[in-house]
């Protein structure tokens, strides 16, 4: 009986639409082949974590997803559209549905927190109504646990708070897809844990589909529905965090020691 239910659950998730679909992706820079053969399908609402040592091509992969880099071979489909086929206007339109959080993502120093958040809404969403702006800013600051930060300047905030505001600024436009590139790098363990929890809460609240690149195993454990281990331009292992933590494979084990 349990097995039947389990099977039904799998079938249901298999039928979910793939929001990001990468097939046979290859990318070289000069003589250096960075991506050898990347295949990845991320389903709607899923959090996929990519682990891998530095320089293995994790960031290059997500740059191909948003059309900042062009693949040498293979296809990248996002929300059903092949990224390489899009013209400038279509690519811009697609990017409004994708949020990024990079390690170095900086706030505008000369703007208050409120102005930083409103800027995203005005520019990406063309929201001009002040009461709508106020409502969205208030909601998002509450989401990230900083309800009183609106009138502060970025320089008044700690590193962890700035990271939360960066996350709020990205999420305020309710992107369908979130790409997190090392969201907890450079933060202390407690702040890292808080950011990981926020990533998870935002996935649940807004049903966002996300790729999270990280070295932080605690973050991977907290946020992941599925984990991929990338090495030498390819994915070498895939599974849930728990499955991979029990793996006998030497490469996989090296991440869990
Ligand atoms: N625009 C670029 N031009 C040339 N080389 C690049 C470029 N972007 C990345 N690389 C190289 O590709 C390799 C993978 O980079 P990256 O995806 O940033 O690694 P990581 O897995 O640490 O995110 C590195 O050797 C890097 O130097
Ligand atoms: Mg990187």
Automatic annotation (TrEMBL):
Entries under SUPFAM superfamilies matching the protein: P-loop containing nucleoside triphosphate hydrolases
SMART domains linked to this entry: AAA (SM00382)
UniProt KW Hydrolase keyword: no
Entry GO MF terms: ATP binding; ATP hydrolysis activity
Superkingdom of the source species: Bacteria
InterPro entries: AAA+_ATPase, ABC_transporter-like_ATP-bd, ABC_transporter-like_CS, P-loop_NTPase
Key words of the record: ATP-binding, Nucleotide-binding, Transport
UniProt-listed Pfam families: ABC_tran
Residue ranges of domain ABC transporter in the record: 20-257
Key word ATP-binding present: yes
Family matches, as Gene3D superfamilies: P-loop containing nucleotide triphosphate hydrolases
Stated name of the protein: Phospholipid/cholesterol/gamma-HCH transport system ATP-binding protein
């Amino acid at each position: 009986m349990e097995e039947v239910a389990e099977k039904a659950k799998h079938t249901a998730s298999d039928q979910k639409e793939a929001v990001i679909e990468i097939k046979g992706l290859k990318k070289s820079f000069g003589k250096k082949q960075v991506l050898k053969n990347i295949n990845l399908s991320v389903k709607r609402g899923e959090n996929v974590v990519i682990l891998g040592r530095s320089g293995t091509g994790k960031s290059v992969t997500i740059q191909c997803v948003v059309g900042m880099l062009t693949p040498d071979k293979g296809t990248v489909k996002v929300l059903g559209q092949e990224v390489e086929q899009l013209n400038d206007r279509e690519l811009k339109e697609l990017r409004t549905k994708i949020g990024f959080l990079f390690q170095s993502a900086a706030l505008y120093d000369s703007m208050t927190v409120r102005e930083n958040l409103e800027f995203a809404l005005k520019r990406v969403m063309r929201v001009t109504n002040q009461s709508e702006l106020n409502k969205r800013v208030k909601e998002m600051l509450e989401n990230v646990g900083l309800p009183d930060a609106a009138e502060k300047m970025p320089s008044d905030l700690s590193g962890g708070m700035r990271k939360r505001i960066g996350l709020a600024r990205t999420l305020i436009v309710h992107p369908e897809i979130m790409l997190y590139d090392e969201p907890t790098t450079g933060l202390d363990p407690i702040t890292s844990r808080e950011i990981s929890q926020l990533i998870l809460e935002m996935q649940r609240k807004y049903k966002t589909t996300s790729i999270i690149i990280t070295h932080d195993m605690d973050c991977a454990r907290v946020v992941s529905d599925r984990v991929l281990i990338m090495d030498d331009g390819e994915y070498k292992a895939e599974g849930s965090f728990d499955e991979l933590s029990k793996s006998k494979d030497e490469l996989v084990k090296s991440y869990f020691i």
